[in-house]
Amino acid sequence: MLDWIAVSIDSYLAEVNDYLRGKGVYEKVIETLKILSQYENIYKSLSVTLTSKNISKDNAEGLVKLGKKYNVDAIVFNMIMLEGNLFENIADLMPSYDGYLKFIKFLETELITKYFGDIEIMVGEPWAGLFDPVMLFGLTKIMKTVIPNTRMCSAGLTSLGVFSNGDLTLCLMLREKQFIIGNLTKEKLIDLIDNDILRKIRGNSKVICGLCEYSNYCGGCYARSLQVFKNAFYADPLCPRNIKYLSPVIKEKLKFSE
Ligand code: SF4
């Protein structure tokens, strides 16, 4: 049964969105939202990819207004992924690291509170709880009493991804063969969920993040660890706690100010 539809949109302004997503995309998104707004029983969210072109309080507020207008349930903000050619040519789209941290803090400590109970604001950074660990990681602690495996990064714990060919993965950002657990066109999900990689994920599996006091609540992002450190089980490179493990070249790409 279909219970959640996510629609990608990067700005409430057509020209900014279409600069990032392609000409005419904004209009198609609005048409889609108009149709979806009639379906009360489907959870609807906007997925926003943060770049230097759209990372602003004004854009976040504009997207909330747009979401409310079309009965959207949630807005999910995700950092631009750091993979392949994109990471090599990212300079134009990469926000400064300082600006990015400030924005995540704004979402986590101001926008979520402002629209609490009205529209859900979600931040795709597992470590965003660092801005208020007692409160934010505390919520994960409470959730763990009901779902023991839960962490801020849900990959392989409370969520799995399925590609259009049926391949099952920990997360849709992990497409490499080593992360494909099986294929749902040939195998049953129940027969696939107890394997080595899932057991590893359930443990305290990252080398650096594994040393962190919050690893059991946060976990960091496996995909970004792979993209930057070439090892999914190392560390989330964008976490403020892990800056010291980044090479000068990576720091330059990520626009660190130090
Ligand atoms: S070091 Fe890793 S586990 Fe700790 S807060 Fe950062 S991303 Fe999360």
Notes on the protein architecture:
The protein has 258 residues and is an alpha/beta fold. 36% of the residues lie in helices and 12% in strands. It has helices spanning 14-21, 25-36, 57-69, 84-88, 97-114, 133-144, 189-192, 196-202, 222-229, 248-253; strands spanning 4-8, 43-50, 74-79, 120-123, 161-162, 167-169, 180-183. The strands form 2 sheets. A 4-stranded parallel beta sheet has the order 1-2-3-4. The protein has a 3-stranded antiparallel beta sheet with strand order 5-6-7, with no helix packed on it. The longest helix is centred in the middle third of the chain and has 18 residues, at 97-114. It is globular, with a radius of gyration of 18 Å. The protein starts with a strand and ends in a 5-residue tail after the last helix. The mean pLDDT is 91. The structure holds iron/sulfur cluster (SF4). The site of iron/sulfur cluster has 15 residues, from loops.
Summarize the structure.
The chain is α/β, with parallel strands linked by helices and 258 residues long. The protein has ten helices and seven strands. It is globular and about 45 Å long.
